[in-house]
What does this fold into?
Amino acid sequence: MSQPLTTLECGLELAIRHDTTLAQARHRLKALQEAAQILHQRLLELRMLQRASALVDRGSLARSHKSPAT
It folds into this structure.
């Protein structure tokens, strides 16, 4: 996840310091938008993994509290 975040940070820094034309700024902003979309997708995937893990944990907890069959 850090690569898209670093891309955003460094890209914005470069845009502020070096882009002198509107075309340069647009090109860099398009690349930064793509990095932001990748970061957003990764965050959604992490959220899904977290929810799946919570469901597994709840299932394990429920099974451990059941009384053994006699």
Q: What stands out?
A: The radius of gyration is 22 Å. The mean pLDDT is 84. Residues 2-52 form one domain.
